[in-house]
Design brief:
The protein has 464 residues and is an alpha+beta fold. Helix content is 28%, strand content 28%. It has an eight-stranded mixed beta sheet with strand order 5-4-8-2-1-11-14-13, with no helix packed on it. It has a three-stranded antiparallel beta sheet with strand order 3-7-6, with no helix packed on it. β16 and β17 form a beta hairpin. The structure holds zinc ion.
């Protein structure tokens, strides 16, 4: 006997991420996003938006779940036909006029608003003194636009931004078209490489776009508050040299262009948005930050373009691969350009490592976010606590093999996603022996293993 299945209720779904169970959605693979925003010059008012998603169904679907939480949905179409929709928690649940078959191409068009007044968590849209910028990591892209908001589903992006004519709009990738008409300007940008939703960037403000030449003729493009161009130029002049330095370590820069967008806002963080990293103005203007520190933070976000952006994490538990590597190159740059020995920093990290593991989980098994504070997964254990894992690997397999792992990692997984198991497998292959046991302790252990070559290094007892 077989009972007929009851019609499935509209429920929020996810791709099964251990840290964010409702993030992403099963049943389809997004190829591209085409997102149009109309900004009327007031960053306390919702923007009008149209998000077009081209996807392929990977299974038969009666409903299509999207992630979206911070705007009003006006209409949804699937392949040109009006579709039903409802919202539940952080999902927009679409009912197409007929069921979708596996393998079918889908064009989902959502007319909606995008509300920059974020409420408690100031992520998603960042309201600046003169407009807006974006900070979507880890799970805030769906506050801004309907999406499959998980780094495992990368896609190409086109952004179309209409803004008052006195403002400048810039987004990830290259400019395609700028059209001035009446009191507004239309700006179009397109990425040349696939991108995770968390790495989207749209900046609108009283900004100047500065160009300079990077290595092998690449375009280095910065977006700076116009009033600060002179003050910030000495910092921006450093980027081409930093790119050259990173290329000497891991190989060619992976994207079409690079630069900084400097936001006139207090965010308390910088963010590696793809091809256009977000920085807060304060980092460059506050006198208490030493110059070496500011430069090393610039290198941290630059290193993410390889580690985190070009090679993005398959799940959020792989976050250590992003932050561990970015911290590694941040520290290595400080060692080579300032009197900041890596060994000293790593010895200090080693001392605190057990405490970090006790409070945040092991590097590759981080604890979930504190309720209501989703970005709380960005704990010390994934920064210096995970750079320490890379240091241990270098101690274990030697400098030459380690550098080969790094280069092969970014070339093998370029424009893709990768897992912790992929990193363990590559390291084992390069070292010529199985490193599973070595990594087990370093990535998953409650206690930090002994540091190869430094038997005298000690951990401090975690604070009770
Ligand atoms: Zn980082």
């Amino acid at each position: 006997m077989l009972a007929a299945a009851a019609p499935q209720a509209a429920t929020p779904l996810g791709v099964g991420d251990r840290l964010f169970p409702y993030l992403g959605n099963p049943g389809y693979d997004v190829q591209s996003y085409d997102i149009a925003f109309t900004y009327k010059g007031d960053n306390s008012k919702p923007l009008d938006a149209v998000t077009k998603i081209d996807a392929v169904a990977t299974s038969a679907l009666d409903r299509i779940n999207l992630d979206f939480s911070h705007g009003t949905v006006r209409s949804v179409k699937v392949n040109g036909l009006r579709a039903g929709f409802t919202t539940k928690d952080e999902d927009l649940i679409v009912t197409p006029s007929r069921s979708v078959v596996r393998g079918e191409p889908l064009r989902i068009t959502v007319e909606h608003t995008s509300d920059p007044v974020a409420g408690k968590e100031e992520i998603g849209w960042v309201r600046t003194k003169d407009g807006l910028a974006m900070a979507n990591q880890a799970d805030a892209a769906h506050r801004v636009f309907p999406s499959n908001d998980h780094p495992s589903d990368k896609a190409y992006f086109t952004f179309r931004i209409r803004a008052p004519k006195e403002l400048t709009a810039v987004a990830n990738g290259r400019p395609v078209l700028t059209t001035r008409a009446g009191d507004h300007t239309d700006w179009v940008y397109r990425t040349a490489h696939p991108m995770a939703t968390e790495l989207a960037q749209v900046s609108i403000g009283r900004s100047t776009v500065l160009h300079r030449q990077g290595p092998h003729g690449m375009d280095v493009r910065d977006v700076v508050p116009t009033k600060d161009v002179k003050k910030l130029t000495p910092w921006l002049d450093r980027t081409p040299g930093q790119i050259r330095w990173m290329e000497s370590k891991v190989g060619r820069y992976p994207f079409e262009n690079y630069g900084l967008v400097i936001a006139d806002a207090t965010t308390g963080f910088e963010l590696e948005t793809q091809t256009l990293s977000l920085f807060e103005r304060d980092l460059f203007t506050r006198p208490e930050y030493p110059k070496w520190y500011v430069a090393s933070v610039m290198v941290h976000e630059l290193a993410h373009q390889w580690f985190g952006d070009s090679v993005s994490p398959r799940t959020w538990s792989d976050l250590w691969l992003n932050e561990g590597h970015a911290t590694w190159y941040e520290a290595l740059y400080a060692q080579e350009h300032a009197d900041m020995p890596m060994e000293k920093r790593m010895r200090a990290a080693y001392a605190r490592s057990d405490a970090w593991r006790a409070s945040g989980g092991a590097p590759a098994a981080p604890e979930g976010p504190v309720p209501g504070e989703k970005i709380s997964i960005f704990r010390p254990v994934v920064y210096d606590g995970s750079a320490l894992v890379l240091y241990a690997l270098r101690q274990e397999i030697g400098k030459e093999a380690f550098e080969s792992v790094e280069r092969q990692w970014v070339s093998t997984h370029r424009d893709g996603t990768a897992t912790t198991a992929d990193f363990v497998a590559l390291s084992s292959r390069v070292a010529g022996r199985d490193l599973t046991g070595f990594f087990d302790g370093w990535l998953y252990g409650k206690k930090t293993p002994p540091m190869p070559g430094h038997p005298d290094w000690k951990t401090e007892a975690p604070a009770k």
